[in-house]
Description:
- The protein has helices spanning 68-71, 77-88, 98-108, 120-127, 136-142, 146-152, 161-178, 187-194, 198-204; strands at residues 9-16, 27-36, 39-40, 46-49, 92-95, 116-119.
- By secondary structure, the protein is an alpha/beta fold.
- Strands 1, 2, 3, 4, 5 and 6 form a six-stranded mixed β-sheet that branches.
Amino acid sequence: MTAWMDAPLVALDLEGSGAQDREDEAILEIAIVPIRDGQPFLAGSYVTLINPGRPIPRRPWISPGLTSKVLATAPTLSEVAPELAERVNSKIVVGHNVGVDYRLLRRRCPAIKPHALIDTLRLARHVNPGMKGNSLGALLDRHNLTAEVTSLVPGSQRHRALWDTVGTALLVSALISDSGTGSGLTLTELLSIAGPPATEQASLFDPLGRLAQS
C-alpha cells in the first residue's frame, strides 16, 4: 500500500474572473507546487499569470493585483497549457474546494488529466466534523501556518495563486497529523476521506471538461 507522502501529489490553485461570468469565466492566474515528504517543494513550483484576451473589470472578488493592465502582458492559456499538462497529468491534485478550480481548469484545458483529486476542505470537515470556519485562510490561521506561508512566498499574498497553493500544501499535512494517522495514512485511505464523492466523479472527470449540469 502506498503511503500518502510517497504519492505524486501536487497542490494547485487558480484565480479566475468569477463564477458570475458563467460560460465566460476566465483563468487569470495559476500555481502548481509539488508536495514531497508532506511539504511543499518550492524549487519545483510553477506560477503564471494568464492573459484572458479581454478586459477584466474591477470587482470585489477579483484577486488583488490581477488587473487588465498586468494581465495584458501575460501568456495566454493556450501558450501555458502544455506546461500545465506536463505538471498535472497523472498526478494527484490537492486543492481547497478543489472541484471548483478543477472544473474550470478542465473546461478550459481538456488535455489536463490528473490521476485523482484530494480536497482539503473535505479533509478538514472529516478531521473536525461540525467545526465552523473552514475557509483556507481560517484553517491556516487555526493551524498557525499563516506566517509560515508568508515567509515561504514573501512576494505573494492571500488570495493569490502561489500563496494559496503553498498554504494548501502545508494544510494537507497538518490536517492529516490532526487525524492521528500521520505518515501511516495510505493514499487509498486519504482518497476515500478527501476525494470527490461518487456523486461528483462523473461531472469532474467528464472527458470534455464540461461543468456539472445543475
